[in-house]
Amino acid sequence: MNTEGKHIFVCASFRANGSPQGTCDKKGGPALVQYLQEELSDRGLDDVLVSTTSCLKVCDRGPAMVIYPDATWYGGIESEDDIDAILDCLEKGEVDQDHLIS
Ligand code: FES
Fold first, then answer.
1. Which of 91, 77, 102, 89 is nearest to 9 (CA)?
2. Which structural domain, as residue segments, surrounds residue 18?
3. Is ligand 1 within 6 A of the CB of residue 56?
4. H/E segment holding residue 74
C-alpha cells in the first residue's frame, strides 16, 4: 500500500480556552501518540505524518483521529490494539470498520 501523503491527526484534547482535559484526554487517547509513531516506524511507514490537534468535535466518540487526505474518521481508540487494527487496515488500503466514525 502506498501511504505517501497520509497524515494522521490525533485529538490531543486541548480546547480553544486552553483546557487540557477534554474527553479524549480523559480516555487516554493522546497517550497513544507515541505508540502510534513507534508503530509507524516499526512498520516502515515513515512517509505517514502524525500531528496532534485540538478538539476534533467528536468528543462523544473519542479518543479520536482523522486520516487525510481520505478524511477517514476513527473513534474509540483506547488501546495499542486499536492503533494496530487501524494501521493494519491502512497498510492494506482498507478502512477499519470497527473504529470508523460514520
Ligand atoms: S476532546 Fe477529542 S474530539 Fe473533542
1. 77
2. 7-92
3. yes
4. strand 72-74
pTM value? 0.90
CATH code for the domain in which residue 50 is found? 3.40.30.10
CA distance 87 to 95: 9
- Residue 12 CA, closest ligand 1 atom number: 2
Q: What is the pLDDT of residue 75?
A: 97
Q: Is the CB of 23 under 6 A from ligand 1?
A: yes
Tell whether ligand 1 has an atom less than 6 A from the beta carbon of residue 55. Answer: yes
Domain count, the chain: 1
Q: Is 80 inside a domain boundary? A: yes
Question: pLDDT (tens digit, 9 = 90+) per residue, 3-59?
Answer: 888 999 999 886 666 555 678 888 888 889 999 999 999 999 999 999 999 889 998
